[in-house]
Design goal:
Helices cover 28% and strands 18% of the residues. It is α/β, with parallel strands linked by helices and 600 residues long. The protein folds into 3 domains: 260 residues, Aconitase, domain 3; 146 residues, Aconitase, domain 3; 153 residues, Aconitase, domain 4 (Alpha-Beta Barrel), CATH 3.20.19.10. Strand 24 and strand 25 form a beta hairpin.
């Protein structure tokens, strides 16, 4: 039996000739990156634990979250990283460079068959060129910088075959929004997805990046797109490595083979709050907007800029509407300048900023305020992710057309007279501080909190406006303050509590704080049906107990019941009702790291 793409890449970067799903192996990493918000914590870990740098030539900082340094804490963190980089001779892609994952491709650090990790949860964007990329927390990155490798559990793989041809008006963003409509946020949870078909074969690198960039929003480990000759040549022109592209063996095994008829795809948007809550664009056509954003790692490439410019040329942004445009990299920005696209944007009335992630990580431009309605080309619209208003997700052409119209529309429906703007809404309150408690027994006992919601993302758990906080004792007060109905969780939680929740808990960003905030409050454990992949790693590495279950029906757990859990064997006793049951126990790796007090 042969291997699929992710298995072949992992095997080639490990001591194993063959790997299979479920194997936990140490993987050699070709490119090891920390960003401006995670980088300072990586530096702190390296200094606190007296770690070193395994290979400076493979180690990078990328300042893409807030390259303007407009937030004082971001500016401080960037300077911490710069000083550390000078000390060790590490390459810094500073505030003039752009988004780190794009830089890794465009500068030749990542190529088909390569491996990379970053503090960016969208590092799996590298699947666009047939490379393995993963977002990880600051502990993982510090350990990788020190050892040059990181442990990884080989995922199951799905083969997805695109049938037919999409309509000429269907963009790559529409394709991925249609996929989200079908698969949701957790149907592909923890899987590697390989995409095939004539429609894929014809896609440019920019369109492949758009699709690969939203693997995280589907819960997938990565979307891997086998590189065609155009992609291989693009990477060869930019890399000094004599690489060999990786393709699946003809007898590779997949957990599922899925056919998708892309000829049925329609223009779609994601409704505010959930990237996977996608609907026919016609259902929200006419919805008034206050602002629009074009950019992000999903739609900040050159083709995206050209599509937007084609719509905006000779037109003006509607009065009262703010259009913000941020190219993904400085290379894209300069090409826009050379082609006259910057001039088109400015004459249309848009704000054009220097290259970077923009509003996605509470940095740079693109944020909105309470009550503000925005349409964005970003990949996430979780509550608070791009500000305090409502954010629809759409393609660059649709966003540009909507900015001109003053309401959500398509290019062929731009009106002669734009709409008027709407009024703002409510403000969400913050919460208070709780102290930290640490304890690592095999058997834990505590009162349960039942928060039976699926897809609770890291912005709901610990909002990105607090990302600059590095002191764990300060984090607890902000836990769940962006989760509707639980904004006062930190006031009511008690040391020893156990949280029980649904599927895909911790989806979204790679931030370690979304784990540490619970430790800060003294919460002992989180039990969920499943976890976001990066979140699960971060908790394991921090020695914070996460457990999964298939069903809790037989244990009859109610809010406030007292539970006793054996982490080693998965036995659960509802002490309040004197009922026992089983959930999934710790893995051997999780138990070892737990008793070690953490990865570092």
């Amino acid at each position: 039996m042969g291997m699929n793409i992710i298995e072949k890449i992992i095997a080639a970067h490990s001591k194993h000739e063959i790997v299979r799903p479920g194997d936990i192996v140490d993987v050699e990493i070709d490119a090891r990156t920390a960003r401006d918000f995670g980088g300072a914590n990586v530096v702190k870990n390296i200094r606190d634990y007296n770690l070193g740098i395994n290979d400076i030539s493979k180690t990078y900082f990328t300042f893409d979250c807030n390259p303007t340094g407009s937030d004082q804490k971001y500016a401080v963190n960037q300077h911490i990283c710069r000083l550390f980089a000078r000390e060790y001779g590490i390459k810094v892609y500073d505030i003039d460079a752009g988004i780190g994952t794009h830089i890794l491709i465009d500068k030749g650090h990542v190529y088909p068959g390569a491996t990379a990790v970053s503090t960016d949860s969208h590092a799996n964007i590298l699947g666009a060129v047939g490379a393995f990329g993963q977002g990880m927390g600051d502990m993982d990155i510090a350990s990788t910088w020190d050892k040059g490798k990181v442990w990884f559990k080989v995922p199951k793989s799905v083969k997805m075959i695109f049938k037919g041809e999409p309509d000429k008006n269907i963009s790559a963003k529409d394709i991925v929004l249609n996929l989200l409509n079908r698969f949701g946020a957790n149907s592909l949870l923890g899987l590697s997805v390989e995409i095939y078909g004539d429609a894929v074969e014809k896609m440019s690198i920019d369109d492949r990046i758009t699709i690969a960039s939203m693997a995280t929003e589907m819960g997938a480990i990565i979307i891997l797109i086998p590189p065609n000759d155009e992609i291989v040549n693009y990477c060869r022109d930019r890399s000094n490595v004599d690489f060999k592209p990786v393709y699946a063996d003809t007898d590779a095994e997949y957990s599922d083979i899925i056919e998708v008829d892309v000829s049925t795809f329609i223009p779609m948007v994601s409704q505010p709050g959930k990237p996977h809550d996608t609907i026919d664009l016609n259902e929200v056509s006419g919805t008034k907007i206050d602002s629009a954003f074009i950019g992000s790692c999903t739609n900040g490439r050159m083709e995206d800029m050209r599509r937007a410019a084609k719509v905006l040329k000779g037109r003006k942004v509607a009065p009262g509407v703010v259009l913000k445009i941020v190219p993904a990299t400085d290379e894209v920005w300069n090409t826009c300048l050379e082609e006259g696209i910057i001039d088109t944007f400015k004459k249309a009335g848009a704000l054009v900023s220097n290259a970077g992630c923009a509003g996605c990580a509470a940095g740079q431009v693109g944020q909105n305020g309470p009550g503000e309605i925005s349409i964005s080309t970003g990949n996430r619209n979780f509550p608070g992710k791009q500000g305090k208003g409502d954010v629809f997700l759409a393609s660059p052409a649709v966003v540009a057309a909507s900015a001109v119209a003053g309401y959500i529309t398509t290019v062929d429906r731009i009106p002669d007279v734009p709409a008027e703007m709407e009024k703002p809404g409510h403000v969400i309150k913050q919460t208070t501080h709780k102290k930290i408690k640490k304890d690592r027994p095999d058997i834990i006992e505590g009162r349960c909190w039942i928060i039976m919601k699926d897809n609770i993302d890291t912005d709901m758990i610990f909002h990105n406006r607090y990302l600059a906080i590095t002191n764990i004792e300060e984090m607890g007060q902000y836990t769940f303050d962006n989760l509707e109905g639980y904004e006062d969780f930190s006031k009511k939680a008690k040391p020893g509590d156990i949280v029980i929740t649904g599927k895909n808990f911790g989806s979204g960003s790679s931030r370690q704080q979304a784990v540490d905030c619970f430790a800060s409050l003294g919460v002992q454990a989180i039990i969920a049906e499943s976890f976001g992949a990066i979140y699960e790693r971060n908790a394991i590495n921090a020695a914070f107990p996460l457990l999964t279950y298939g069903s809790l029906a037989g244990i009859d757990i109610k809010q406030g019941d007292l539970l006793r859990i054996d982490l080693r064997n998965g036995s659960v006793e509802n002490v309040t009702k004197n009922i026992s049951g089983k959930i999934d126990p710790f893995s051997e790796v999780q138990l070892d790291i737990y008793h070690n007090g953490g990865l570092l």
